[in-house]
Design brief:
Layout lengths: L9 E5 L7 H14 L3 E4 L4 H4 L9 H12 L3 E5 L7 H6 L26 H18 L5 E5 L11 H15 L2 H8 L23 E2 L3 E2 L2 H27 L7 E2 L1 E2 L8 H7 L4 E3 L8 H13 L6 E5 L18 H11 L2 E7 L25 H16 L12 E5 L1 H9 L9 H13 L5 E5 L9 E4 L9 H10 L3 E5 L21 H4 L1 E8 L6 E5 L9 E13 L3 E6 L8 E8 L2 E6 L1 E3 L1 H14 L13 E8 L2 E8 L5 E4 L5 E3 L5 E2 L2 E4 L4 E6 L1
Parallel strand pairs: 1-2, 1-11, 2-3, 3-4, 4-7, 8-9, 9-10, 10-11, 12-13, 12-14, 14-15, 15-21
Antiparallel strand pairs: 5-6, 16-18, 17-18, 17-19, 18-22, 19-20, 20-21, 23-24, 24-29, 25-28, 26-27, 26-29
Helix pairs in contact: 5-8, 8-13, 14-17
Bound molecules: alpha-D-galactopyranose and zinc ion.
The site of alpha-D-galactopyranose has 9 residues, from loops.
Length: about 675
């Protein structure tokens, strides 16, 4: 449980009372009660208010706010206010503002704008976090600490350059080792002095859109920036911990956000929280995958849905309203996948600046007679009824998909073989094929212990870090099914190619070697031609993007390419390895191929889908807790849909009714079923 003080699914979100006055606050509280809201996140962007000058602090407004919220029966997620520095700080200490990708020094403005290696920023952010903790550690409303907000953005200033050199000295020891790791004899980039190393940006090695002439330095810069921002988090966290010993600490993450290695971050956080902002057209399985990834950050522990909009965003090109029922549906999607909170940005729409058209629980109309408010209030009642039933429930998936930020950086920085390869989309293809068949998967780090799984899928495992190949071998030898794809096993963690034939360190496990890699533009295909039926796979399937030209060594060939000069070469292989099997899919396969392919692997291992037939637009997922098992059925269609349940009777926890056989889910409807 996140905090014993509130033993239910938390319901609420970001609240900025400092933008309003006493009359509005009264209305806020009246409406919060109507909506069943019991927790608010405050003080996210109030640094300037809290610290009017170098050595002056003024927490009077916050004292009053905390007391008022408590008196009104609300719990507080207390942010540290450091996500936007005050104007006076930028003026007096120019080192707090960042330098951008083109070397331009930023002036004051915006948010998430502080240089992570600024001594000023580190000093003052740590100091205010400590002061807040000292002041509010025992406040009865306090439930959780929320450090800064959505960390992100890189800085290219001189302080960052200096810090980068120190980071490199720590990682490599000698300049000689750096030169080797980055292969600097290429284009004559050998460094003789640490000071010769400059940051890779638009003035040096990089161009727009992850283009780099030197992947080694660009990769290390990303690691360094992720670490630098994480250090800022740690400074505040440690300052809080000096006073507030037990209240959990988090910062809100952003799903597959490319810039930070969240597996590293998770180690420093007490609970994962994240902000979910899909658009009208985001595939529901993509949102599901990201929830699963957030759950995977801390070995399957429940996470917080820290923000979502009750209706629309303001920062997308087209800020569509969430259709009636969709807010509830997507809230339960988060819960189904491990969230123990449902929280919004924002409680009340502001009247000025860029978020005035961002959805809120209390809209500009200012009263409760709105569609959005009614939907929020209905959900609030339901969450109240669910009480603590689902808290701490976990997934018991037997399939794992590996996800790795450093691998993503390396793939997307790579010059060649194609500009189209997007790591997260390739992962999503595999995830989606399982999702559409009601097979639950966990997303886990390459460093995780995956022995508990029957099947481990590693889409595009381009970078093989030290020890990972041995781990995959051990897992397979012990009886696991391992699956990997094209463009895998190519480089080590410095993006240096493992020579002797791809897939390098994975060659022994897979029993193949790849001689060449073909790339075709979007819309051009080859085919996966099955040699004989494999489960329901039979005949020919289109494939695209990249095509490894492989030779089978100890592996069996299940399918061959259907055209071009490599027609007849293997495209799908399986290698018996110890008690298990290792599959190689040498190209980017379509859903028509991946669904039956993964189905067959699951059948071979006795991994059952959650429901036998998954109608289009239906999502099935499960959480388990102390011998109880909760099956969530979500209907993402606007129309009703029928779902065939397995044997036996089930209780729908939302209505209390008993169902069996075939159930009718209303359009955008949700059921949480437990065996009766
Ligand atoms: C982010 C931020 C919030 C707000 C929302 C708007 O998630 O954390 O402060 O700006 O976006 O969608
Ligand atoms: Zn900087």
């Amino acid at each position: 449980m996140i905090n014993q003080k509130l033993p239910k699914m938390w319901y609420g979100g970001d609240y900025n009372p400092e933008q309003w006055g006493p009359e509005d606050w009264k209305e806020d509280h009246r409406m919060f009660k109507l909506a069943g809201i019991d927790v608010v996140t405050i003080n996210v962007f109030s640094w300037a208010l809290n610290q009017p000058g170098e050595n002056t602090y003024d927490f009077a407004w916050l004292d009053e706010t905390m007391d008022r919220l408590h008196a009104e029966g609300l719990g507080v997620v207390l942010a540290t206010s450091t996500a936007a520095h005050p104007a006076w700080m930028a003026k007096r200490h120019p080192d707090v503002t960042r330098v951008d990708f083109y070397g331009r020094k930023r002036t004051f403005g915006g948010r998430h704008n502080s240089c992570p290696n600024s001594k000023t920023y580190r000093k003052y952010s740590g100091r205010i976090a400590g002061k807040l903790a000292e002041r509010y550690q025992d406040h009865p409303a306090l439930l959780l600490w929320h450090v800064s907000n959505e960390y992100g953005g890189y800085c290219y200033c001189d302080n960052c350059a200096t810090a980068f050199r120190v980071w490199l000295q720590d990682r490599y020891g000698t300049l000689d080792a750096v030169n080797k790791a980055w292969n600097t004899r290429f284009w004559g980039h050998t460094f003789y002095d640490w000071d010769e190393i400059v940051l890779p940006n638009g003035m040096s090695e990089e161009g727009e859109g992850n283009v780099s002439a030197f992947q080694g330095i660009s990769l290390d810069f990303r690691r360094f920036m992720s670490d630098s921002l994480l250090d800022c988090y740690k400074i505040e966290r440690d300052a809080i911990r000096e006073h507030s010993k037990d209240v959990p600490i988090t910062t809100n993450l952003m799903g597959t956000f490319p810039q930070l290695n969240y597996f590293d971050w998770a180690k420093e956080m007490d609970i994962i929280s994240w902000d979910n902002y899909p658009s009208l057209t985001t595939p529901v399985s993509e949102t599901a995958m990201v929830h699963d990834l957030m759950r995977g950050l801390k070995d399957g522990a429940p996470f917080m849905l820290m923000e979502q909009t009750p209706s629309q965003q303001n920062w997308q090109a087209y800020n569509s309203l969430k259709r009636p029922g969709v807010m509830r549906l997507w809230s339960y999607q988060a819960v189904a996948r491990g969230a123990d909170t449902v929280m919004f940005f924002q409680m009340r729409r502001s009247i000025g600046a860029c978020e005035k058209y961002h959805g809120a629980v209390i809209e500009h109309a200012g009263h409760e007679h709105t569609r959005v408010f009614r939907e929020v209030a209905e959900l609030g009642q339901e969450l109240m009824q669910l009480g603590d039933m689902l808290l701490d429930a976990r997934s018991d998936a037997r399939v794992a998909i590996l996800y790795d930020w450093e691998n993503r950086w390396a793939i997307e920085l790579s010059s060649g073989p194609t500009v189209e390869l997007q790591y997260a989309s390739e992962v999503h293809k595999y995830y989606d094929a399982l999702f559409k068949q009601g097979i639950q998967a966990d997303l886990v780090s390459v460093e995780a212990d995956y022995n508990q799984y029957d099947i481990v899928i590693a889409p595009v495992m381009y970078m093989v870090k030290a020890g990972v190949a041995q781990k995959a071998e051990k897992f397979t030898a012990a009886g696991g099914t391992f699956v990997t794809t094209f463009f895998s096993g190519i480089v080590n963690e410095n993006d240096l190619v493992t020579v002797g034939g791809y897939p390098g360190e994975l060659r022994n496990l897979l029993g193949i070697w790849a001689e060449e890699i073909d790339a075709l533009p979007a819309g051009q295909y080859n085919q996966i031609v099955m040699k004989k039926p494999f489960g329901k796979l039979e005949g020919s399937y289109n494939c695209e993007l990249l095509f490894d030209l492989i030779h089978a060594e100890s592996a069996d060939v299940l399918a061959e390419y259907g055209s071009d000069f490599y027609k007849g070469m293997p495209v799908l292989t399986v290698n018996a390895f110890g008690k298990g099997e290792a599959y190689y899919v040498a190209t980017s396969a379509s859903a028509e191929f991946l669904q039956p392919f993964l189905k067959k692997l699951c059948e071979d291992r006795g991994v059952e889908p959650l429901i036998q037939e998954v109608p289009p637009g239906i999502e099935a997922t499960k959480r388990v807790k102390g011998g109880r098992s909760f099956l969530f059925l979500l209907n993402h269609n606007a129309e009703n849909a029928a779902v065939i349940l397995g044997d036996g009777k089930h209780r729908d926890l939302l209505t209390g009714s008993i169902v069996q056989g075939t159930v009718e889910l209303s359009g955008r409807g949700v059921m949480i079923l437990e065996k009766a």
